[in-house]
Amino acid sequence: MLKPLFYFALLLSLLACSQQDTPDKYWQHAGSGALAANISNDGTLALVSSTAHGLILWDLTNNTQRHRWQQQGDNNLVLFTDISDNNKYAVSADKNSFVVWEVASGKALTFTKIRESAIRDIVIANNGQLLIGKVNGKVVHVDIFSGRRIEFLGHSEKINSVDLSPNGRYALSGGNDYSAILWNTKTGQVIQKFTHPSRVSKVVLDPKGRYAFTADSKKLSAIWDLKTGKEISRLQYMSRSRIFSAVSFSRDGTQLFTGNPGRLLNRWDIKTGNQLQQWQVQPRENSRPPSSVIYSIGEDKSGKLITESSSGYAEFWSYQKKGNNE
To answer: What pLDDT, on the 0 to 100 scale, is given for residue 2?
Structure first.
C-alpha cells in the first residue's frame, strides 16, 4: 500500500504547484499575433514586432505607444528584439540586419547588415554594446559608438542563444556544440564553460551578476553560481525534455521564471529547482491546437509578472509568496 499512497501524494503535490490560473488583466498589442517581443527588466516597456503593426514600443504602465518604428532591411520582418537594462537603447533585427534605437528620442542610431552568416540571437547592453550570435558558430561583440568589434570563436557549431551583462563586459553564449560559455568581451577569454549532454538551446544571465541559466534540448536545465561556476540546482520536471523560449530571474534572487513554446509560464525555486507554480498564457487566435510561444517575461515593481507572447497579448500575473518553502 505504500507505493499507491506515495504516488497519490506526489500527484497532489504536483497539482498544488501547477495551478492553471487566469491573468489579472491583459492588453492586446498585436491583433494578428506577434513575431517577437521583449519586456524591459523593470517591467515598464515592451518592444513588440508583428506583420500587421510593425515594430511598436509600448509603455506598460498605461498601455500607450511610445514609438512606432519602421525596420529597415529587405523584408521588414523583425524576429529579434531586446531592450537594455537601463531602458536607454533597444535593438531590433531580422536574420540579416539590425537597428539600434534610442528609447528617449525614438531615433535610429545605426542600421547594419550582417556579413557571412545569419543572426540567431541578439542582445544590447546599457552602453549600446551588442552581442550577436550567428548560424556559423561565431559570436560577435560590437560597440556601435567606437566601432570596436571582436569575434568570439569558442564555439564549433551554430549558436542558439546569447546574453550580455548590463555593462557589456561579460557574455554568455550557447550552441549546438553542447556547451554554454561565459567569456570576457574585452579579451575574449573564457571564464566558465558549462557542458551539456545535448545542444544548448537557451542561456540567460542574471542582470545582478549572481546566476546563469543554461538549458539543452533534452533534460538538463541548470542554474549556476557565476562566482564559483558551480551548479546550484536543476529544474525538476517530469517530461523528458522542455524547450524554454523566455527566462528571467526574480529581483530578490530566489526565483526563476520560464516560458515555453507551449503556452506554459512557470515559477521555480532557485535553491532547489522545484516548480512552485504554473500558468497558461492565451493561445494565438485560430491556432489549432491552441498554442502560443512566450517571448518574454518581466517583473514590475510590485512583483507582478508580465508576459508577451505570439498571441499578441501582454498578460499580467500575480502570485503570493509564502516563504522559502512555499
So the answer is: 41
